[in-house]
Amino acid sequence: MTTFLKAGLPVMAAALLAACGNSKTAAPERPDSSGQQSAPVTEVAKPAGLQLKNDQLNAVYQQYQQLSTALINGDEAAARIAANAIEAGAKGISGAEKLVSTAAGIMAAPHLDAQRTAYATLSNDLITLVKKSGISSGTLYVDYCPMALNDKGGYWLSDESGIKNPYFGDKMLTCGEVKETIQ
Fold it and tell me: What is the pTM of this model?
């Protein structure tokens, strides 16, 4: 749990800054042990042009994108960190109790397949919340893979029209289709 907190605090801080509507600023450079400047600190990227009407949900969506990327890449640790940030951010959103508990389930999942199974529930809950909240600007796509979850199918949100399947990652990266466009 301590590892999650240490790794998750910078992510949660970035989410809170994004939720407050702060514009993206240059990342500070830190001196390394020799006193020279090292590379800038990486910050969470905000999807270009996408803005949900609910600022807290907008911050959660950014972490959801991190979770999706982690699952696409097959990175269990990064998925846990993103799920931790989703859990923390969703606690302040009315009607997001199921999202909070599902994010906690992803953090506790024993392996990548279990994370992907919980991701399906989390995605469905987030799709519902996003549709209720609405979008101020940009476009979201509701993607679907019929082969996910042992051929039961699984949905996810993306801000790109191209398919990058979080349920199979490299095995079937482009398996799926856009089922709905939210504007």
Answer: 0.73
